């Protein structure tokens, strides 16, 4: 579970674009804390510290205890904006939470025990990841750092559905209907998949009474066609020579 982190902030007295630009020139990021049936509070945060927290990962699933100078606010990041050109932080929104709050967060999916997956280790299959992250609901003290999926014992063709994944205590998927929601599959190697596709195409054609040409078959037929054409040309030349001799005799 994610641990609560302390964050030092300053009260932001002025709002607006001009005030926000002035803060950024000072190496600070404007932010706001809202929700919890309280008035929004404008704050300013250290740009370098926030950048390091973002690069560390799990930023939007971390609960922060923010010291605003006027008191401490417990909040979770809800959104942040970056400069489209420089990619620098422009603004952050924090949502107030309490000990009883349940939040909807997006967490990454981690796959375990790949070395114990026969489909991958013994048969050369590959892990085809459909969902790299999932939305879950959890209490603020139960937010997981990741959802773990066990690959042990899985073979080629096995499908991992969301409703078969064991979640940590106090955590549920945000979506209610999980039937048919695929997180990952164990897929056959590319070469094997191509062979299977060819076999399926041949079988389907046979069922329709058709003939499926392989590359070798096509080359063989082309070679036979060329031989027949050469024979026809030779016969035509012989006929012309025969007619020429007959004309000379006459």
Automatic annotation (TrEMBL):
The residue ranges of the Large ribosomal subunit protein bL25 beta domain are 103-189
Gene Ontology terms, cellular component aspect? cytosolic large ribosomal subunit
Q: Which domain of life is it from?
A: Bacteria
Stretches assigned to coiled coil: none
Composition bias, kind Acidic residues: at what positions?
Answer: 212-231
Q: Does the keyword Aminoacyl-tRNA synthetase apply?
A: no
Q: Give start-end positions of Basic and acidic residues composition bias.
A: 232-250
**GO BP, one annotated term:** translation
One function term, GO molecular function aspect:
structural constituent of ribosome
Q: Where is this region: Disordered?
A: 197-250
Give the Large ribosomal subunit protein bL25 L25 domain ranges: 7-94
What job does this protein perform?
A: This is one of the proteins that binds to the 5S RNA in the ribosome where it forms part of the central protuberance.
HAMAP family, per the entry: Ribosomal_bL25_CTC (MF_01334)
- Its family? Belongs to the bacterial ribosomal protein bL25 family. CTC subfamily.
List, alphabetically, the PANTHER family matched.
RIBOSOMAL PROTEIN L25/GLN-TRNA SYNTHETASE, ANTI-CODON-BINDING DOMAIN-CONTAINING PROTEIN, RIBOSOMAL PROTEIN L25_GLN-TRNA SYNTHETASE, ANTI-CODON-BINDING DOMAIN-CONTAINING PROTEIN
This protein's name:
Large ribosomal subunit protein bL25
Q: What organism is this sequence from?
A: Hansschlegelia quercus
**Lineage, uppermost ranks:** Bacteria, Pseudomonadati, Pseudomonadota, Alphaproteobacteria, Hyphomicrobiales
Gene symbol of the encoding locus: rplY
């Amino acid at each position: 579970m994610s641990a609560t982190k302390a964050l030092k902030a300053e009260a932001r007295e002025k709002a607006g674009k001009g005030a926000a630009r002035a803060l950024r020139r000072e190496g600070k990021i404007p932010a706001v804390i809202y929700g919890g049936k309280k008035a929004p509070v404008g704050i300013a945060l250290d740009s370098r510290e926030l950048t390091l927290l973002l690069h560390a990962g799990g930023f939007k699933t971390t609960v922060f205890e923010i010291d605003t100078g006027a008191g401490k606010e417990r909040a979770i990041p809800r959104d942040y904006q970056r400069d489209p050109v420089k990619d620098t932080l422009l603004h952050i929104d924090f949502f107030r939470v309490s000990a009883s709050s349940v939040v909807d967060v997006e967490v990454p999916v981690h796959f375990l025990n790949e070395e114990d997956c026969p489909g991958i280790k013994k048969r050369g299959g590959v892990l085809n990841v459909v969902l790299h992250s999932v939305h879950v609901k959890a209490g603020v003290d139960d937010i997981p750092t990741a959802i773990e999926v066990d690959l042990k014992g899985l073979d080629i063709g096995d499908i991992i559905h969301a409703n078969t994944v064991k979640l940590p205590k106090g955590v549920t998927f945000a979506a209610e209907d999980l039937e048919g929601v695929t997180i990952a599959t164990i897929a056959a190697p590319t070469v094997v998949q191509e062979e299977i596709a060819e076999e399926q195409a041949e079988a389907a054609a046979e069922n329709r009474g058709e003939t499926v040409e392989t590359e070798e078959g096509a080359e063989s037929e082309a070679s036979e066609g060329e031989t027949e054409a050469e024979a026809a040309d030779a016969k035509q030349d012989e006929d012309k020579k025969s007619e020429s001799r007959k004309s000379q005799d006459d």
